Amino acid sequence: MNPPDPLATSVTRARYQRISPFYDLMEGLAERRYHPWRARLWSLVRGPRVLEAGVGTGKNMPFYPLGMQITAFDLTPGMLARARKRATAINLEIDLRLGDVQALDFPDSSFDTALATFIFCSVPDPVLGLRELARVVKPGGRILLLEHMRSPNERIGRLMDLLNPLVVRMMGANINRRTVENVLKAGLKLDAVENLGMGGVFKMIVARVP
Hints:
The protein is of the alpha/beta class. It is built from seven helices and seven strands, in the order αααββαββαβααββ.
């Protein structure tokens, strides 16, 4: 595998560092929709060792199942600082660390499940990141994703392609990623893909390490 592009990774980190102080405020309305999706995704976790990629400000923490050994990381120091505050506020014991999903500092087969919510829109090389998750999850283990991606409606999809450069500059997220296809490119097996809203833009993906 090719290593991650350091420049692209640095640019992504800088974008999210810039918006980290008001990220939760920006996402406030959207979270009303995301809450039940997050709860459902976490109900599918199999432990005991669980990895959350791209923990952000810790929005998934209220849904962590009991009795799990959870490790979570984020690319951005500003996001991670807010996640630490949230974990302290709810008395959560968790291993929080800086990390890049494209180059994980864990041995092979370290976890039973890996989970990510809304991060593969911004990972510079999403296939590389998914392959890294597959590497650190045990064979037969699950990789659970909640993501937004390019619309399957071709007319809308082309509009998303047109708007994507502007959205990336402002928000850091690509709106036209083809994440289901990327999961397959990474060598994972698809167990389920569920359309959640906006005509298939939002999806829940259950994949498995061969």
